[in-house]
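retry 2 of 3: previous attempt timed out while embedding iron/sulfur cluster. Reduced batch size to 1 and resubmitted. Inputs unchanged:
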Amino acid sequence: MSLHRDHDYGTPARVSEHWIDLTIDGLPVSVPEGTSVMRAAEEHGIRIPKLCATDSIEPFGSCRLCLVEIEGRRGYPASCTTLAEAGMEVRTQSSELMELRRNVMELYISDHPLDCLTCSANGNCELQDMAGVVGLREVRYGMQGANHFDAESARPKDTSNPYFTFDAAKCIVCSRCVRACEEVQGTYALTISGRGFESRVAAGQDEPFMTSECVSCGACVQACPTATLMEKSVIEMGQAEQSVVTTCAYCGVGCGFKAETKGNQVVRMVPWKDGQANHGHSCVKGRFAWGYATHPDRITTPMIRKSIQDPWQPVSWDEALSYAASEFKRIQAQYGRGAVGGITSSRCTNEETYLVQKLVRAAFGNNNVDTCARVCHSPTGYGLKQTLGESAGTQTFDSVLQADVVMVIGANPTDGHPVFGSQLKRRLREGARLIVVDPRGIDLVKSPHIRADYHLKLLPGTNVAILDALAHVVVTEGLVDETFVAERCEADSFAAWRDFVALPENSPESLEATIGVPAEQVRGAARLFAEAGNAAIYYGLGVTEHSQGSTAVMGIANLAMATGNIGRLGVGVNPLRGQNNVQGSCDMGSFPHELPGYRHVSDAATRTLFEGEWGVQIDPEPGLRIPNMFEAALDGSFKGLYCEGEDIVQSDPNTQHVQAALSAMECLVVQDIFLNETAKFAHVFLPGSSFLEKDGTFTNAERRISMVRKVMPPLGGKADWEVTVALANALGYPMDYGHPSEIMDEIARLTPTFHGVSYDRIEQLGSIQWPCNEAQPDGTPIMHVDAFVRGKGRFMVTRYIPTDERVNQRFPLLLTTGRILSQYNVGAQTRRTPNVEWHGEDRIELHPHDAEERGIREGDWVGVASRAGETVLRATITERVQPGVVYTTFHFPESGANVITTDNSDWATNCPEYKVTAVQVVQVDQPSEWQKRYRRFSKAQLDLLPRKGKREAV
Amino acid sequence: MDIQNLVKMANSIGGFFGAWPDRKQGRDEIASHLTRFWDPRMRAQIVAHVETTGGEGLDTIVVEAIRQLEAPPVVQPTA
Ligand code: SF4
Ligand code: SF4
Ligand code: SF4
Ligand code: FES
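retry 2 succeeded.
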């Protein structure tokens, strides 16, 4: 728990087969070729003073504090930029060196404010430390520097960013921030302007950080050795006293963080240097947007009510749980065992989702359990299982550093998966080629030092057509990796697939009009992909959230197999998961047809295993999926739902249909940290806990299981896993766990791909990528290395079938949806942080041509109508979208983005078709009918909450 | 549940497997998909629809697949 400070080796680690032997201060040392003298010394416990070097970025050699002596060389080379060579004899201390370093420090200090006692970095400042180390005792230049703390000439502070300040007076112009922004983040927002004493750091075109291109990732703050760039939370609260390593609860990158605290209060979240998914980097969400955890909107007292028109009644945990249990039992007695179910969330830990599906299967006695992955990556689970044999991505994130060409389909990594996006950009700057398949011009298409070789700007809804066209080129131009296919894949399914994609109707020329991309571009992209060497595919919800989502996932797997791009570093099929624990919640058996580890409920051997452990009979029939639950609620056969950590009213399509379904329920139990949109239809509210309030594990998009550690006690008194345990007990099904590690032990006992996983093992290894078992005791970074999990890879025929959702005269535009960097999903967390300063409302993006035709100007209110409903948003006019296509985000409930999305869904999994809705857009001057109703209803529901004081009293 | 929705869902499953060169294999896959992924009450309803209307609105291969389904278990009225 004590405060852990990372060791800074000064320059990045190098990997090499060749090792170099040298001596430093008489000590023989050995380091990989390419290592700096500074790092060689640091790795062997010899510290060399430094200021401009830090090990997250390449050395620069500007401060001259790290000088050393090398036998046989003249002068005093900088150890950070000098590479270790065989036989070198290095001296890090001598009276000459001491003198030189002291002079350097003296010069720095001569223009420094010298308000150390009241400085926010006091106690954690490298400049202070170095002054101490070099033995600075006097400053001969006097104390009248332009930036001294009471000097009127001191530069003003830039406080425009909500999370950190830039106090230029304290800047030593080491340019660590500039280099971090370039090398680590890849945004290039900072420069050094001016020369000599006049040189200084500038954001953008010498403007406030907030208006510059800065994306507030925090890399510069992390790199700054002084208090120049400093977290506002540290300025307010002072330096932290303890730290705990945990995992970000936002996106599927799953960054490791050090939560630095004082008592129960978080002072700051610092990206964990040893985090194997993020290597010390982060984005604005994980790094800064954690304040929601203690937001006054948190509900921390259980509440019940008979009907949703009644005021909420605050009650004890026991009363709430026994009321919920008695209602579920009453409903089952009256309407049948299958009339109740549960929904888990990808925001919950593995242990929590495991318990919810266990509760449904063991205590409810049915398989009516589903997870919000239904509406995002269920087609990934289905499609990859059918083709490769495992419902998961094939690579580690680091694999991208070996890729020669990267194809990004229906994903926006720099906004949706920013830390991976930075890593990808780094690889692209090193020369990897890029193909972007997206209806919209995402940032990656053109960003500093990056240009996509191909941007295939297809029409929404034509992914399968373009994948077939790409495959057509591969097959007909002799680009198949015949050896790989012959050795690794099924001969008959390959033959059927090859014959199918080779059909003339699948050629880029035949499909040109359908896809909306010139055939030559498709051919060029296919050739580039197939001939590159290592080709990797990264995809997101732009692939899955379609009526042919599963087909497209299989099309991606086909393409990777046919070109031999599976089973080694630098290649693979990589689903970018939206939420932190999408992978984990699927692994844990949250789907109605699967027990943990993706084993079908009809499989008697698997059932017997679980029945033995759980002491109940498991229903061999699949249960209801989320959209089926709504349908069943409307026809009266589904009446009770336990919904943990998931806001189905805001996140599921066709909101009015969902609201009608929930209104038809007799017992809706919501467990959440806020009164979310779904809770407004609930009968029982159970306070949830944020990721800071509990122990558990998350599994990221690369199958990496990482620890979530408790930083503060649960505000409502119980961690989420404890609530599910208590509910199961109230239902008469005993659960008895003292700690989440015992839940993981049970998962490991029952799941072959988890046999080797335990909290102790994760602690030892830092994190574990499943499968982890007897065969792979340290986990599995790359899957399908020698053989596919299913044995031979299976090709699937993927016929393009256009969605029913087509444009016509009434609805002539295609709406597609996406997300933005600063907000997260339904926004319940990020909307309650200063991230709203970047994105305070959802807007609809229109092409200038479509806008002009309708007389719509920037910022106008426009009505967006589909056959499902109508809402009103403000317009942004941009060429990022193509004519005929409009685009919006879905982070704010009042936007009602899902009022317009329809209930079309993927044929295999019912994943909703969020990405294609035919709409009309017209200028309006008032909110839609739905919005007016929403505002009334929402206000009425908030009025039914007990007053704050009363809520806390129970 | 709304039978029109079930018909649409069943047809879209048929749309995928119907493209397979081996028609019998395609039909078996449709039947297996319905058994493995549809809740019994949904299956019972689509089977009843085929029995009473001969499969109105359903593609031929889907009707054939549904005729192949084993009768789903009757849902227990009580827990
Ligand atoms: S802001 Fe910090 S990191 Fe950047 S140049 Fe100034 S002192 Fe160095
Ligand atoms: S916060 Fe990130 S993007 Fe902004 S200037 Fe710093 S490194 Fe660059
Ligand atoms: S949101 Fe994603 S990329 Fe950002 S810090 Fe969290 S896990 Fe990392
Ligand atoms: S640390 Fe080497 S020159 Fe600054």
